[in-house]
Design a protein that fits this description.
InterPro entries: Tetraspanin_EC2_sf. The protein is mainly α.
Length: 223
């Protein structure tokens, strides 16, 4: 019995890496707006590991490769490491989506402390892009800005009631952000969960293919 890999087993690491990239791009502004650099680091780590897994599987499939034993030695632990990272990132994503949908006050605190501050330029730029792309203003509406340092330290008279990037002063950004995180989070969690199952299956088949004693015992059980 030999290990026969289906096409989806070969290409799934690249699909997972692509999905992770799409999710990261789709939630880029929200990550910066909430200052969740930790999540960005996890996503970048996933992309690197998935590409390594895909490359290792590609080398493993070359039956005549002289380095197959070496590739097998590294591929097994790499699959397990990738599976653990996938499970961890999916769990973090679930909590992040829950936080974005049920704790909008944390967003409001970021607005109060970060927007307009020279020390938080990324936060300011992220909120401006959120306003423009989602056609919204603040978390709940323009009134949120009255409590911010940006509003209190304006040099204009009369003071602006909201930043110029606000597309609509009435509609808040909470609902668009919640929807966006829910869609992206569901997509990411689903793909990584399926990828984890495939990696576990692949790891089992690697053990079977590379270990003659395990293969003989398994064949005896199936007779």
């Amino acid at each position: 019995m030999t290990w026969q890999l289906d096409k989806y087993v070969l290409f799934h690491p690249f699909v997972c890496a692509l999905t992770t990239s799409v999710t990261l791009i789709g939630l880029w502004d929200i990550f910066f707006a909430t200052y969740e650099d930790f999540l960005i680091s996890i996503f970048c780590l996933i992309i690197v590991v998935e590409v390594l897994v895909g490359g290792a599987i590609t080398l493993f499939l070359k039956k005549d490769s002289q380095s197959r034993d070496t590739v097998t030695f590294y591929l097994g632990p790499l699959l397990i490491c990738s599976a653990v990272i996938n499970l961890t990132s999916s769990t973090v994503m679930v909590f992040f989506v829950y936080k974005m949908n049920n704790d909008p006050h944390s967003l409001l605190e970021i607005v109060k402390l970060g927007y307009g501050s020279p020390w938080y330029n990324k936060v300011t730029e992220a909120w401006d892009r959120l306003h423009i792309s989602n056609e919204c203003c603040g978390v709940y509406g323009y009134k949120d800005w009255r409590e911010t340092d940006w509003y209190k330290h304006q040099n204009t008279y009369p003071p602006l009631r909201a930043p110029a990037s606000c597309y609509n002063n009435v509609i808040g950004c909470h609902l668009p952000i919640s929807f966006q995180t829910a869609v992206m989070g569901t997509l990411f969690s689903t793909v990584t969960f399926i990828s984890t199952i495939i990696k576990i299956r692949s790891f089992k088949n690697i053990l079977y293919e590379s270990n003659q004693r395990v293969r003989l015992e398994f064949d005896n059980l199936t007779v």
